[in-house]
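Weekly structure sync, notes
Attendees: PL (lead), two postdocs, one rotation student
Agenda item 3: pending single-chain targets
PL asked that the sequence for the first pending target be pasted directly into the notes so everyone works from the same version. It is reproduced below exactly as submitted, 282 residues in total.
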Amino acid sequence: MNDETYTPPKVWKWNDQDGGKWTKINRPISGATHEKTLPIGKNPLQLYSLATPNGVKVTVLLEELIELGITDAEYDAYLINIGEGDQFGSDFVAINPNSKIPALLDTSTEVPTRVFESGAILVYLAEKFQLFLPTEPGARAECMSWLFWQMGSAPYLGGGFGHFYSYAPIKIEYCIDRFSMEVKRQLDVLDKNLTERQFLCGDDYNISDIAVYSWYGSLVVNTLYDAQEFLDTASYKNVSRWANEIQSRPAVLRGQRVNKTWGPEEEQMSERHHADDFKISS
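Predicted structure, written out during the meeting:
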């Protein structure tokens, strides 16, 4: 790579280039690279994931359900190490042909049900247990709008800003500026929406809050990309208030630990099989 103007070829070809920390997880083809059997535990729900923002969405919702006493929401969470290529194993690809975490297998149905894409998993679980998703048409539409806003916006935050600001092997001013501008616009959208609302859709906490918090809340109150100062996230007062309120929920604190293998040891839990696992690891 150099500072000269790049002229795209007529036909793009993949070169195995250095793309930073996550180089090995990206390739222009799909499918399994190796045979690998996934474990299956005793609980109704089997989750194969990692504690990235997309993975945290699902574990937070599951912990919220369990917090309410929904025993059928008990789950086994198995670690998928994307840095080692676990997502390209044959069993994982059979659940998620897109080879991205998280992936869910519901063994309580007559034929085990696979669900992939974090937003789809949130909707599936919320509908299955009839919680954290409004049923009144207008309220449901508002919830789904914010959920899909996050699904459409996060690629700019994670794949764009996060990549070029934190992971790219070189710092490219144009790329960082372009994605910083968009991320700050998104934070402004959230901040204005939360001016007179406790949660994204009003007075009630739902799956849209869980989804958006996992990305934008983590950006503001946690250490996602270590970019709080750079993006001046403290200036988004309403987002900060909302994120801190969600961060204080016991189920959120538990959900953030599941399938986490970095950071302080007391915040890690590579696998999760029972609610008592949190007591043992504390």
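Discussion points:
- The chain has a mean pLDDT of 94.
- Residues 137-167 form the longest helix (31 residues).
Action: rotation student to compare against the earlier draft before next sync.
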